[in-house]
Design a protein that fits this description.
Blueprint (H helix, E strand, L loop, with lengths): L2 H11 L1 E2 L7 H7 L4 E4 L7 H18 L3 E4 L3 H11 L9 H4 L14 H14 L9 E4 L5 H12 L6 H12 L6 H10 L6 H11 L11 H23 L6 H21 L5 E4 L2 H4 L15 H9 L3 E15 L8 E5 L7 H7 L5 E4 L5 H5 L2 E4 L14 E4 L1 H4 L2 E8 L12
Parallel strand pairs: 2-5, 2-6, 3-4, 3-5, 6-11
Antiparallel strand pairs: 1-8, 6-7, 8-11, 9-10
């Protein structure tokens, strides 16, 4: 592909980006969608969080978006949700509400950027009736044990057969002592040891009970179902990940879409949602090399089902710093993000002018549509010295509806407790 033609197309399309406050055309386009997907090129970059928060505030205040769903666990996010909605017995402040984010990598949510957003949501919700308060929810899959505990705690206050189904599921998992890997190996190698049947039964017992619940218990009843969905999704994820193929990734992203749809159902047919996830989840997988590996993702699944009712905004950076770990479970640290490799989208965006840029993609941009170039993706485990492995071959104008390029970025600001491994 001719780089000069790509640069010409970028210069023609890109406009200076000064932040959400001035991004009127972007907000106008995004606000026509039921689902606005806000990405990030890393889980540890401050500007990705603050800019997503600023865009989210505008969508909420100007267009009535009803909830933010994030790449986080349901139980810990629900604690924060109760705080921002001012529920009884909620935490006294955002920092306390965030202390439930104890699972590595806790810095993803246990940080000063989320404290600011949480306090803003709390203030915004303060004078709203319960039915109009904006929620904050986790749609990920890793909380198998925590979600099981929350279900037992909730059902322990109720009468009926549901508690027996929960106890049977709990007893099935109990021999593994909270070790997901141990359960996954056992279930994958010895199918008869799987807890799949028990968790499916549990979910059926709790499904849609919120539709019949009393108004003051409606969201807590939803929470029980969402925890049961997390248990079911987590069981399938840990059972399939042992095979080291695409299926565990696909299980996770299908689960996140189901969680988004359940939340949309709970909030009513007119409700619209903001989704915060990594670019690798919200950017349509069909326009990356993920497709060749048999991988799907949230952006693809939502687009296939809802079409123009989905608006995906990707993020990228040329250089800076980031919070990440050297291995899974390792202490978090601030790392240097090297200059983007030559010929990547980020490097070409920088070469076209070292300033923050917004690209709003239109149909029929043949030069950009046909260009398959690296799009940087930094995970929670990061090795800057192995930079070439951090790029996803991407047709950027097809993968996203818009792309925000921030030329230089800085690391997220974790709260002190998030720095403990």
């Amino acid at each position: 592909m001719n780089e000069e033609l790509i640069l010409q197309s970028i210069r023609k399309l890109a406009r200076k980006y000064t932040g959400a406050e001035d991004a009127n055309e972007l907000i106008d386009r995004a606000s026509s969608a039921k689902f606005v997907l806000l990405g990030e090129a890393s889980h540890g970059t401050s500007e990705f969080y603050t800019d997503r928060a600023a865009l989210s505030k505008r969508l909420i205040t100007e267009y009535g978006y009803r909830f933010i769903a994030v790449e986080g666990d349901w139980p810990s996010c629900y604690t924060l949700n109760r705080y921002v909605k001012g529920c009884s017995a909620a935490a006294k402040d955002a920092r306390e509400a965030l202390m439930d984010f104890a699972r590595w990598p806790s810095w993803m949510w246990l940080n000063r950027e989320i404290v600011e957003l949480a306090e803003w949501l709390r203030r915004y919700n303060a004078d709203k009736p319960d039915a109009e308060k904006v929620g904050f929810y986790g749609i990920d899959i890793y909380s198998l044990w925590e979600s099981m505990d929350e279900i037992l705690k909730y059902l322990g206050t109720k009468e009926g057969a549901d508690i027996e189904a929960a106890k049977r599921a709990f007893e099935c998992f109990q021999p593994y002592g909270g070790d997901e890997q141990r359960y996954g190996v056992s279930a994958a190698l010895y199918g008869e040891d799987s807890c799949e049947e028990e968790v499916v039964t549990l979910l059926r017992k709790l499904q849609d009970k919120w539709k019949e619940a009393q108004p003051d218990d409606r969201e807590n009843t939803l929470s029980a179902e969402m925890n049961a969905m997390a248990v079911q999704g987590g069981e399938a994820y840990y059972r399939t990940m042992i095979r080291h193929d695409a299926e565990s990734w696909n299980v996770r992203d299908r689960h996140m879409v189901q969680a988004i749809e359940k939340l949309a159902d709970f909030h009513g047919p007119q409700a619209r949602a903001i989704i915060w996830e990594h670019n690798t989840h919200i950017g349509d997988a069909r326009y990356t090399d993920m497709a060749a590996d048999g991988m799907i993702n949230v952006g693809q699944l939502l687009r296939e089902k809802y079409g123009k009712d989905v608006y995906a905004i990707g993020y990228g950076t040329y250089q800076g710093t980031v919070i990440a770990g050297r291995s899974w479970g390792a202490p978090s640290q601030e790392m240097k993000v090297p200059k983007a490799i030559e010929g990547s989208w980020e490097e070409l965006l920088h070469r076209s002018g070292a300033e923050n840029k917004l690209l709003l993609f239109e149909d029929g941009q043949p030069v950009l549509d046909d260009a398959i170039l690296g799009n940087r993706a930094i995970g929670v485990v990061y090795h800057p010295e192995r930079e070439r492995g951090n790029y996803v071959p991407t047709a950027v104008s097809k993968r996203y509806d818009a792309f925000i390029f921030l030329d230089e970025t800085k690391a997220l600001s974790p709260l002190e407790s998030a720095l403990v491994p």
